[in-house]
Specification:
The protein has 161 residues and is α+β, with helices and mostly antiparallel strands. Helix content is 30%, strand content 37%. The chain has a six-stranded antiparallel β-sheet with strand order 1-2-3-4-6-5. A four-stranded antiparallel β-sheet has the order 7-8-9-10, with no helix packed on it. Strand 2 and strand 3 form a beta hairpin.
Length: 161
């Protein structure tokens, strides 16, 4: 698997593991993009290019304060980007070029500053296994093949009661 494919895989896995968000595909000018949203608030927007991704994160006042407290833990490129960007009325807009897993790890930390995880991990004791599917008593199931996480589908709890 190429580094670029690993970045895509890890991004989707991270976002779906940590958050319950809407995934909205669209266009940012002439660039395809994917937005992870909660209601009308965009948590993360990813511009899709042929050889890299641009992750757009907007840090509001409280989020900037959290970031500045741990800024020294981030790679120099992200620190410099943060310092370079102007603060607008709605926050600091960071557009981060991501083409490798190292940069993605730093972006994950930024996402965790932007929004606390709101998805709980699945309980293994309530799982029922069969034909590549793991069913859970809370109405969730994970499709897997050869222990490779392929897809998580979130269904309404009431459908399985």
């Amino acid at each position: 698997m190429k580094e670029f494919d690993k970045v895509r895989f890890e991004t989707v896995k991270f976002m779906r593991d940590k958050y319950w968000l809407d995934e909205v595909a669209g266009m940012y000018y002439n660039i395809s993009c994917l937005k992870f949203r909660q209601g009308k608030k965009t948590i993360l927007s990813i511009n899709l290019h042929d050889d890299h991704y641009d992750f757009q994160i907007i840090l509001g006042k409280a989020e900037r304060e959290k970031f500045e407290a741990v800024k020294h833990e981030f790679p120099l490129e992200i620190q410099e980007l943060y310092d370079r960007e102007r603060t607008l009325h709605d926050g600091k807009w960071l557009l981060i070029h991501v083409a490798d897993l190292k940069t993605l790890e730093a972006v994950k930390k930024l996402i965790l500053i932007k929004k606390k995880p709101n998805s709980k991990p699945f309980s293994k004791e309530n799982a029922v296994y069969g034909r590549g599917l793991k069913f859970y008593d809370n109405g969730f199931f994970i499709v897997s093949s050869s222990s490779l996480f392929l897809l998580t589908i979130k269904l309404w709890h009431s459908r399985f009661l």
